[in-house]
Amino acid sequence: MSGNSNRFLRPGPEVSCDTDGKNEQYLDTQGLEDQREKKTTNFSTKVFNYLKETEKQNNDIGLYTLIEDVRDPKEQMAVEALRQELVIDNLLPSKHDNYHMMLRLLKARKFDILKTKKMWANMLQWRKEFGADGILEDFEFNELHEVLLYYPQGYHGIDKEGRPIYIERLGHVDINKLMNVTTEDRYVRYHVQEFEKSLSIRFPSCSIAAKRYVGSSMSILDVQGVGVKNLIKPARDVIMRLLKIDNENYPETLDRMFIINAGPGFRVLWKTIKPFLDSKTASKIHVLGTDYRRKLLEVIDESELPDFLGGSCTCANEGGCLRSDKGPWKDPIILKMVLTEETQYSIRTLTMPNCEGKGVDTNPHLMNCIDESVESGEEGFTLGSTNPDLAPSQVCEGVNC
């Protein structure tokens, strides 16, 4: 028995990060970046070779796509305040100077600057020790074909909002056979690699296809036949390890989750799991029985839903839906645009009428100006660079910038 984030083996409940480490251990980032530049990027090479071989590549690839990125002004202020703190403490390597990455961690720590900074520092240290920055190039999960036999899972299609859909068939998992074809450590590395692929490939591809920023995914967990008996020690060990990684390093990447075919056995198990989820995470999870098709089709087009979940897609030429990795990220033109950053982002900032004239207190709690009932309108039109994740201070201030 993930993303991430995201499902029992993907982004889930938050785990507090209160480790008091020395900042010095996070400073050797330039050396790592220099080493990374010298490495042969196998993943990128494979992708570009694929693009060269396809007939769909043409001269139109050089045209950019305009992507809308709508931002909340109070969240922009929060990100800028955090960014300044990180710069002061030398905790912001250029690779991670990323607006949405900082915003995700701020949300995970309820916009508490000090707690978010500590979480950020711990994340950088974990990425350095785990090798997350280079895992797309450095790790080959050659046993994937066999793993999918005993743990059917995969990304397939997008929902009606353009988010990638992640599917797991937990009732078909055979944990003992799974551990015979891979190891816990290798599966964990594969799990992290898939998260990194979503952040660097899937989300940007979906953003291009939807022409608006996409930074989260939707999950479907088929738990038919799952009960307490399935939660044997190897499964518990893997789940807890992945939950910790996801919660501490990939928070706020799950938009919603549907748990389907939930029978009496799973509902008993759910009562065991749910107390470990914070209220915000739990609110994203919808537990359904066998009458789930109508709910799924409210948010997913039938053509994007596998036939075994009530849709019309079979991916017959791809070995089945859970082996196809179907999505905008498989379109060679979109993939080329992602890898070469041939995109432009229009950043729209929403107005907050009830917050005019109010400042923000950044120590330790950032958000003094919060009114969830405020009806926001549009203000301005900012054309950013090819990077949608630039911090507010780096974004040019007008159309003709």
Topology summary:
Blueprint: H1 29-38, H2 42-53, E1 65-71, H3 73-88, H4 99-108, H5 113-130, H6 135-138, H7 144-150, E2 153-158, E3 164-169, H8 175-181, H9 184-210, E4 217-222, H10 233-249, E5 254-260, H11 264-273, H12 279-283, E6 285-287, H13 293-299, H14 321-324, H15 332-340, E7 343-351, E8 377-383
Helix pairs in contact: 2-15, 3-4, 4-5, 7-8, 9-10, 9-15
Overall description:
Helix 2 (42-53) crosses helix 15 and helix 9 crosses helix 10 (233-249). The chain is globular and about 50 Å long. The chain is built from 15 helices and 8 strands. The chain is α/β, with parallel strands linked by helices and 401 residues long. Helix 10 (233-249) links the parallel strand 4 (217-222) and strand 5.
Regions with little confidence, pLDDT below 50 for 5+ residues: 1-27, 54-62, 354-386, 390-401
Shape label: globular
Helix content: 40-55%
Radius of gyration: 21 Å
**Order of H and E elements:** HHEHHHHHEEHHEHEHHEHHHEE
* Strands in their spatial order, largest beta sheet: 2-3-4-5-6
Structural class based on helices, strands and sheet pairing: alpha/beta
Distance between the termini: 51 Å
Number of helices: 15
What percent strand? 5-15%
What average pLDDT do the residues reach?
79
What's the β-strand tally? 8
Q: How many strands, what sense, and barrel or not for the largest sheet? A: 5 strands, mixed
